[in-house]
Amino acid sequence: MKIYTRAGDKGRTQIIGHQIVSKDDARVEAYGTTDELNSWVGYIISILTAQTTELADELEEIQQLLFDVGNDLANPSEKSHRDYKFDPQTAEEATKWLEGKIDRYTQAAPQVKKFILPGGSPVAAALQVARTVTRRAERRIVTLKAQTAINNDVMGFINRLSDYFFAAARYANYLDKRKEITYRNSKLIFR
């Protein structure tokens, strides 16, 4: 199987069901951003420290779930010849699993009463990037949903996933003993 087909050289791509669409089609944007997020999670796994390695298995599981979500987003429901991979039971269990992680990490990290700036350790900073890519994926999914029927079970999971990445970033800073910087209202400090 060749990696290149030359079919996309004119800005078009074939989606599941053999339909040809523009590469900036809402469906392609939704599953493409989900794929970008999945790749970013793989990068995070590659930079985990000895202190944060406990996150590896759950991040890999998130990659598996994102692959299912991406498959469902890439699959026009009206032409679907199979059931969704991210079914209601999986979605419910995965979302509850994320909520348990969020609660655990929020309890472990120091309490904050102000907004925090994304950053800290490299792992925490990468998790914060994952949070923002998740939010972008969510916006792309909402756009797609406004145009056509999608697997609605992905919405709650993706929304909770961004919360997970925020909590995991804070937890990673806690594990790596990195202080978080709180937002202080911008001032010119270089006068």
TrEMBL record:
Domain of life the protein comes from: Bacteria
Coiled coil: none
One example of a Gene Ontology biological process annotation: cobalamin biosynthetic process
Family matches, as Gene3D superfamilies: Cobalamin adenosyltransferase-like (1.20.1200.10)
Record InterPro entries: CblAdoTrfase-like, CblAdoTrfase-like_sf, PduO-typ
Domain Cobalamin adenosyltransferase-like: 3-172
Signal peptide: none
The EC number(s) this enzyme carries: 2.5.1.17
Transmembrane segments: none
Quaternary structure (record): Homotrimer.
The name this protein goes by in its record: Corrinoid adenosyltransferase
UniProt source species: Lentilactobacillus kisonensis DSM 19906 = JCM 15041
